[in-house]
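step: validate -> pass
step: tokenize input -> pass
step: predict -> running
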Amino acid sequence: MARSPTERNTVRAAYIAGASLVVAAERAGVPEATARAWKRAATGADDWDRLRDARILSSSNNGELVQNIMREFLVLHHEAIQAIRSLPAEEQVSKIASLAYSLNKYMSELGRAAPELSRLGVAMEVLQALGEFIRTRHPDQVVTFMELLEPFSEHLARQYG
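step: predict -> pass
step: emit ->
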């Protein structure tokens, strides 16, 4: 089905304004695959990522910029967790441990740029240690931990971020 230029522009504007591509597509009522194709095809002066970065850089102070970067990373982190849920429990644990490690490192670096985020980095480090503890000492609780991890991580981000 052919899509209108208005739909494409709606997705583009929402994405450049800061929405994830998934959310921008949902808002416009467009399949995610279509939105990804439009974004991929946009090059040069219309490159959606470059326009998004330029908007963030031009409209933010340092703290806001770091929070925008963190927000985007957490959206990607959330999408990765959703993909991991379809894996067997044993694989989920190793993938989550890897994600927790990368999130911890990421938060640590962001904490240097915006000290208020360092508290979130510590909280995420504790979550990583808890995940490793559960994986090694209580493997039967991994699925429960996974079910609680995502909403609790979002809670921490709101509280500390």
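step: describe -> The chain has a mean pLDDT of 79.
step: cleanup -> pass
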